[in-house]
Amino acid sequence: MYSKQFILSFSFLLSLPIIFFIFIAPHVFPSPPTEPLIPISDEISDQTLFSSAAASTSLSHLSSGYPNPKLKIAFLFLTNSDLHFAPIWDRFFSSHPRSLYNVYVHADPFVNITRPQKGSVFANAFIANAKRTARASPTLISATRRLLATAFLDDPANTYFAVLSQYCVPLHSFSYVYTSLFESATFDKSDPDPSPRGVRVLFRTFIELISDEPRLWKRYNARGRYAMLPEVPFEKFRVGSQFFVMTRRHALLTIKDRVLWRKFKLPCYRSDACYPEEHYFPTLLNMKDPDGCTGYTLTQVNWTGTVKGHPYTYRPKEVVPELIKRLRRSSHSSSYLFARKFTPDCLKPLLAIADSVIFRD
């Protein structure tokens, strides 16, 4: 007969492999990546586009520092569904000359999307080189860079690039947005050198560069403990909204980047900490030109009651004049210019107050 002590010891030895694979292995050996790699064909196509844009000789119109009526805003829409709010955006752009703006849409080609009818500003705005996108993956970085490069090449007058989603809506008239970006000397409250003459002399990118987010270290290590080194040290790593308004100079800087892209396109091993589209642009600009950024975004988002990383979504009953006025309030600028996220059935109540509230500044 075996002794009781021997049986216990033998049972413990048999259980060691189970203990190792359940409790220790996950911390020693990373789990499989949470998202697929960027296809090689997409990379080749993108690099051809980016190289063409980087070789462009058109300089930034903002380098002059003086208002020019021919400067344009490029509105860049990322979507993987129908453009539910196209009617309110059409009203936003109506009666304003195309010499002041351009519209570009990156629509996931693997999704059946109904294109707006002829007469809409979106009718011919879909870019031809769009690729598949997925949330919380580097595909959204690629899609945004494609939009930037396409708009950069398409029109040298594109001076500011506003990145938006299909769930974004305007909070002001086009005239207010244009004047705020190009002419107002008081719109940007964080401007370190406001002009006493009432003319904007410093143009910066409106993007968040957050360094004190509680989960930042976890997100930094999402690809592996040392995966981002040496190019991206943790003290330079930032987070911010993927919806920003970027200057032409910074658009070119982003298009030219190769070094940081090689890091951020790496697959993550932690799905709960992998949001590369929220880190690539803030980190790149923080490393290259932090003084050229405001540190805040112009798109209002409500993170109260967030669900699985998604912001609060407004419903039709909430769309009233008081909501628009509340969403405009900003401690960094005179006002937010855009807001998200709204359900598609908010279109009707938004249109009902468009002329009397939203476009009445």
TrEMBL record:
InterPro entries: BC10-like, Glyco_trans_14
KW Amino-acid biosynthesis (keyword) present: no
Entry annotated with the keyword Glycoprotein: yes
UniProt keyword list: Glycoprotein, Glycosyltransferase, Membrane, Transferase, Transmembrane, Transmembrane helix
UniProt-annotated location(s): Membrane
Coiled coil region boundaries: none
Pfam families for this protein: Branch
Topological type in the membrane: Single-pass type II membrane protein
TM helices/strands, residue ranges: 7-29
Name used for this protein in its record: Glycosyltransferase
